[in-house]
Design goal:
- With about 170 residues, this protein is of the alpha+beta class.
- It has six helices and five strands, in the order βββααββαααα.
């Protein structure tokens, strides 16, 4: 999210949403005229430092796993926390490593992006989900779980689908 704020370069108390606003700055000597200054302010997701106490054995195991993966302990803990929250929100979803990185998958089933892509491919059907369930070994609950995850994290799932489609197209070219 981006918003433009206008204010005086002297950081006085006068603020305006219109750059044409003219006022007298109370912070300027001799009541000089207010000089509008346009700056961009970005609202970004800032990280928050959280302190956690871990048992020695657990901390050592985490460090060992992080080091083996070429990660810092902070990176490993952040990933575990993120995936843990996502698992709580989507109980049939788990996470897997693979050649294109870590991705969401259905417990005992394929990756979320695969299910979402198959449903897209069946879009011409009256009930694509029912057709997929009927023609595959997937249960309705698995398909529904994948589609709920996609609704919550569309950019992540759509990027996987797009990567697959691009790689498939590139492989089929002579």
């Amino acid at each position: 999210m981006k918003r433009i704020m206008f204010g005086c370069p002297k950081s006085c108390l006068v603020r305006a949403t219109d750059p044409e606003t003219s006022a007298t700055c109370q912070g300027h000597p001799f009541g000089l005229p207010h000089i509008p200054l346009s700056t961009l302010c970005y609202s970004v997701n800032m990280s928050e430092n959280v302190s956690v106490r871990l048992e020695d054995g657990l901390a050592q195991r985490l460090r060992l796993r992080a080091r083996a993966a070429g990660e810092t302990l902070s990176d490993r803990l952040r990933r575990y926390a993120d995936e843990g929250v996502r698992r709580d929100e989507h109980p049939l979803v788990t996470f897997r490593d693979g050649p294109t990185g870590r991705r969401a998958g259905i417990v005992g089933g394929p990756d979320v992006w695969e299910i979402a892509m198959w449903v897209e491919d069946l879009a011409a059907e009256e009930d694509p989900v029912a057709v997929l369930v009927e023609e595959s070994a997937l249960a309705r609950a698995q398909v529904d779980a994948a589609l709920r995850y996609r609704a919550a994290y569309p950019g992540e799932v759509d990027a996987r689908i797009e990567l697959h489609r691009q790689e498939t197209a590139a492989a089929s070219r002579p």
